[in-house]
Design brief:
The protein has 4 helices and no strands. It is mainly alpha-helical. The N and C termini lie far apart (46 Å). The N terminus is likely disordered.
């Protein structure tokens, strides 16, 4: 996500939001597993550490390149762990309510490791494996 749009956000998780427990990789148009894997850097790791200040925000998959908006599911579940988000709240560029699910929201995954596990399992185009080399 580019710096120019770090405070633009979606109002609520869309139908295909990967943070939704009821959404899968098949629901995301033009799903790209490599991109999904790279977004792990925007979230706390398995130990609850991170992300780094220099890492971009987790953009909504409906965003257009150069006009990205922050994913509502990500903001509500782990956005408070991102240093740029905390700074935005401190400087009143984001309201604290942005960092929790809203009324009537769908069930969301609590961490990105859960999201990735689901996306890997539901990836419509799994990675091709090469046959074993002849010996």
């Amino acid at each position: 996500m580019t710096e120019s749009c770090t405070l633009r956000k979606s109002a609520r998780p869309c139908r295909a939001c990967p943070w939704r427990e009821d959404a899968s990789a098949r629901d995301i148009p033009n799903f790209d597993m490599d991109l999904a894997e790279s977004l792990a850097a925007t979230c706390p790791d398995e130990r609850g550490m991170g992300p780094d200040f220099s890492v971009s925000l987790f953009a909504c998959h409906k965003s257009r390149e150069g006009k990205e908006i922050a994913c509502a599911g990500w903001l509500a579940m782990v956005g408070h762990r991102h240093p740029q988000v905390r700074l935005a709240v401190l400087t009143k560029r984001l309201t604290p309510s942005t960092l929790e699910p809203g009324a009537g929201w769908p069930a969301l995954h609590t961490n990105y490791q859960q999201v990735l596990k689901k996306l890997r399992a539901t990836n419509p185009a799994p990675a091709q494996t090469l046959p074993p080399a002849a010996t």
